[in-house]
Amino acid sequence: MTELLRVENLTKRFARVVANDRITFAVAAGEIHCLFGENGAGKSTLSACIYGYHQPDSGRILYRGKEVQLASPSDAIRIGIGMVHQHFVLVEAFTVLENIIVGTQESGLRLRDQEARKKIRDICNSYEIDLNLDAYIWELAVGQQQWVEILKALYLGAELLILDEPTAVLTPQESDRLFRIIRQMCAQHLSVILISHKLNEILQSDRVTVLRKGQVVGTMTTADTTPEALTTMMVGREVDLSIDKPERPPGRPVLEVKGIGAIGEWGERVLEDVSFSVAEHEILGLAGVAGNGQKQLFEVLMGLRPASEGEILLKEERMTNLTPRMALDRGVGYIPDDRFREGLVSDFSVAENLILGWQYSADYRRGPFLDGERIKRLAEQQIDRFQIATPSPDVATNTLSGGNAQRIILAREFLHANCLILANQPTRGLDVGVIEYVYENLLQKRDEGFAIVLASEELEDLFNLSDRIAVFFKGRIMAILDPKTASIEQVGLLMAGHEGGVDVAGP
Amino acid sequence: MIRVEQRLEPNLAWTSGAFAVAIIAGLVVSGLLVAASGADVFKAFGALFEGAFGSFRAITASLVKATPLILTGLATVVAFRAQVWNIGQEGQLYAGAMAAYLGSLILAGLPSFFQIVGIVLFGVAGGALLGGLAAILKTRFRVSEIISTVMLNYLVVYLLSYLLAGGPWTEVGETVSYHQSPPIPEAAHLPLLVSGMKLHIGFLFAILVAIACYILLEKTPLGFEIRALGFNPAALRSRGTNVSRTILLVMAISGGIAAVAGLSELFGVGHRLRSDYLFGLGYTGIIIGMIGGLRPGGTVLAGIFFGGLESGALYMKILSGVPASLVPAIEGIILLFVLMAGVISRFRLVIPRSADNDP
User: Which of A25, A44, A222, B84 is deepest in the core (most CB within 10 A)?
Assistant: First the structure.
C-alpha cells in the first residue's frame, strides 16, 4: 500500500498546554485509519492541524510524499483533504444540492447547478448513497444530514476524509450502514481518518493509532489487537467497565409520570403521552437518538418547561406548576446534558458552583450573608470526596477539564438530592476513567434507595446499568423493555421508529 | 515571533500597568486636543489639576462634583454586573429628584431629621419604581431594557420640563416665571460635612452605597444570583432561581441608587428643582462604572477622578482660556483608552525562546 499522508514529529501548543507532542503517524491509501484516545488526548487538535485549522508549532505534514504547508482549510481542500465535523455545518433552509455547492461556484447571477447535480448523482450512484438532492435539510433525519456533509467533502474532491466522531448521532443500524459504505469508498481509492473513542467503531478500521496525553502510544493493525488491549493503551492502566449490579427489588414509587405532553419553541409537539414510573432502588434508562424528546422530558420534570397535559407525581405528591425551585427543594438532583450551559456558571469558582442553587439555604448563610468559611469547608470536603482536580476551591471553573466540571455537578447534586436523580447524558464527552466513576456513583445512589432516570447514547452502558429501558422516538415512548431479555438490535429498531414484537416490561 | 495569548488568570502588575499607560495615553491625546484649541498644554493641565485637587477647598469641591457620578456609576455597576443593560440612570436620577421634591412638599414642617429621612425614602422609591418598570417591560413583554430605559429617560425629563414650565411646580415670580421650582426651605437641605465648604452628606451616602454594593455583590445570596445572572442566566434558571424576579430586583436597586444621586444634587447642591444641573449625570455614570471596572471601589476612584476633571475645568478655562466644553471630550478619550486597557489586561505577550521550536 502506498502512503497518502504522513505526519512527522508534529507538535502543537496552546498557552501552557502541549496538545500534540511529537506526533508521528501515517495513513496508507485506501485504509480506514482510526485515531483513538480519550478526550483531551489530542485527537481533535491533530485533525485540525491536518485540515489546516491550526498550524503546528513544529514538525512536518507530508501528502503524497511532498511536504505541505496548510495555512487554512481551503489549502487542505485544494490538495484533497476533506473533513466532516461532529456538529454539522448545514444551512437548514437550503436543499441538499444547495448545501453541497454553496461557496464552490464563481460569483454570478445564476447558479450553474446542472453540472453539479450530475456530478453529485454520480458520486451517490457509485457509493449507493440514497439521498433526495432537492430535499430541504430540515426535512432530513440526522443520519441523512451526515451524508450531506460527506457528499460535500467528496464533491470538493476529497481523497482523504476525516470523520470526527461520526456515529455520535446515529442509531446502531445507521452506523452499520455508514461503515458499510465507508468500506466501499475505501475499496475505490478513498482513505479515511476516523476519530473516535468508541471501541465498536474502532474495530471497523484497518489500523489504529492510540493517543494519550498528546503523544502517540502506538500504531497497530486492528485485526491483531483486542478491545481490552486498546483500552489499556488509551488509559494507561487497566479499566473495568463491566458493571457489577446487585439485584434489588424496587421500593415505593418515587416519580410517576402520567400522559405528559409538551410543546417546543416553534409550537411543535415535543412530547406526546409519556407515562412511566421509577421506584426506589431503580434505574430507568432512556434510549433514543438525540433530539427525540429526552431533553424536553428532563426539562418538564425539572419545571423548566411546562407540561401541556398530564401529571407528575413526586413521592405521591402532585406537582402542579412545577418550578425548578420546587423540584430542588423536594430533593431532586439534576445532571443536565450541557454541563457548561445549564449546570455550571463557568466564570464562578468551584466553591460557588458547588452551592449554585442553594445560595439561600440556611446551611450556607450566616444571617443575611453567605457564610464564606462554611462554603469553603464544604467545598474542600467535596473536592476531596469527588477527587475534583483543582488547585483550590477559589479557582474559576472554566479552567478545569470537562471531567472535573462534571465531578462538580455530581458532588453538588449528590450532596443535596435525597430521592431522585435525573441524569441526561452524564458521561457525554468524558474520559473512560471518569465514566467509570460516574457509573459507580449512580449505582451507589441506587443502593442507597434513590430512583434514577438516566439517558445515554451509549446503549451498552444503558443495558448494563438500567433496571428498565424506555425507548424514545419523536417525543413518544415506543416501549419500555427489560434489559435482561431485550437485545441491542431491538432497541435500535425502536429508536428508528419501527414498532416491533417487543416484550413490554410493565409501565 | 511574539505571540498574543489569553491569560489564564489576571496579573496585578500587568493590569495596573495597562491602566496607568491608558490614563497617560488618554492625557497625551487630550493634550493634543488642548494644543489644537491654541492653549498652552502644560499650563492648561496644571490649572486643571490645581482646580481639581490643589487645595482643601478644591478637593471638597471635586468631591461634591464626584458625588452624583459615583452614585450613577454604582447604579451602572449593579445592573451591568447582571448584564442587565440599564441605560436609564439619567431618568432614574431625575425621577429620584422629583419624587424627593414631592416628598419634601408633603413633609414640609416636620423636624429637619424626619424631613431628610423622608426625602431620601421618597427619592429612592421614585428611582426604584422607574427602574422596576423597565424590568417588568423586559420580563413580561420582552422589551429590551436598552430601548425602554432610554425612552423612559425622555419621558421623565420632559415631564419635569412640563412641571417647571407653567406646571404645578413652577415658581411664580412677581412679573415673570422661571423654569424652576421655588427654593427648598433650609430645614430640608442635606447637612454639610465640613462647615464653610460645600461638601454635604450626599458624599457620605455615595461612600456608604459603594460599601453596600460591595457587600451585596460579594457577600449575599442575592449578589451571588446577580453575578450568576450576568455570566449564565440559563444555569441560574435551571438551578431554581426566578430570573424575572432577580432582574426586577437588579433594576429597582440600580434605579434606587441613581435616584440618590438626583436627590443629593437637589437637596445638597441646587436647593431648587431645575433641570439643567442634573443633565448628563446619569449618562456620565455609565462611563464611570465602566472605567471603574464594574467594581464599587474602582467606581469610587473613577468618580473622584472625573469629579476632579469637572471641578478643575472651570479653573482651567479661567487660567488658560481652554474652553470648559473640552472636558467631556477628555473624559471620552480617557474612557476609550481605559476600555482598551481592560481588554489588554486579559491577554499576555509570549516571546518564545528559540529552544521551544526544536522538536
Answer: B84
Query: Any bridge partners for residue B167, and if so which?
Result: none
Model pTM above 0.90:
no
pLDDT of residue A241: 58
Instruction: Tell me how far apart the alpha carbons of residues B345 and B13 are, in angstroms, rounded to a whole number.
Output: 10
Q: Please report where in the chains the cell 444551512 appears, as a residue.
A: A91
Contact yes or no for A356 and B238 at CB 8 A: no
Residue B358 belongs to some domain of the structure:
no
Of A16, A57, A345, the CB nearest to B228: A345
Rg (CA), chain B: 22
Residues 6+ apart with CB under 8 A from B17: none
- Based on the domain organization, do B21 and B75 belong to the same domain? no
Q: Are A327 and A302 contacting, i.e. CB atoms less than 8 angstroms apart?
A: yes
Q: Same domain for A58 and A154?
A: yes
The alpha carbon of B297 is separated from its chain's Cα centroid by a whole number of angstroms, namely: 13
Mean pLDDT of chain A: 88
Domain that holds residue B153: 40-322
User: Which of the pair, A436 or B61, is modelled with greater confidence?
Assistant: B61
Same domain, yes or no: A144 and A41: yes
Distance CA A274, CA A268 (A): 16
Which one-letter amino acid corresponds to residue A276?
F
Q: How far, in Å, CA of B9 to CA of A394, rounded? A: 12
A399/B232 touch (CB, cutoff 8 Å), yes or no: no
Asked, for residue B193, whether it belongs to a domain, the answer is yes
Residues 281-340 of A with CB under 8 A from B: 302, 304, 323-325, 327-329, 334, 336
Q: What is the pLDDT of residues B157-209, one digit of tens each?
A: 999 999 998 888 988 877 766 788 989 999 999 999 888 888 999 999 999 99
Between B13 and B26, residue with greater pLDDT:
B26
Per-residue pLDDT at B358 exceeds 60: no
The answer to whether the Cβ–Cβ distance between B240 and A327 falls below 8 Å is yes
Residue A369, domain member (yes or no): yes
Closest CA to A397 of A439, A442, A355: A355
CA-CA distance, A137 to A162, in Å (whole number)? 22
A128 and A200 fall within a common domain: yes
Q: Give the residue numbers spanning the domain of A278.
A: 248-331+419-507
**A226 and A132 in a common domain:** yes
Q: What band does B357 get if pLDDT is binned at 50, 70 and 90?
A: very low
Q: Are B71 and B264 in contact (CB under 8 A)?
A: yes
B45/B93 same-domain check: yes
Q: What is the CATH number of the domain that holds B107?
A: 1.10.3470
Query: Distance between CA A94 and CA A106 in Å, rounded?
Result: 19
- Asked if B235 has any chain A CB less than 8 Å from its own CB, the reply is yes
Cβ <8 Å between B5 and A304 = no
Based on the structure, what is the number of domains in chain B? 2
Q: Are residues A213 and A308 in the same domain?
A: no
DSSP strands (E only) in A225-268: 253-263
Cα(B266)–Cα(B28) distance, integer angstroms: 36
Contacts of A324 in chain B (CB under 8 A): 237-241
Same structural domain, B230 and B128: yes
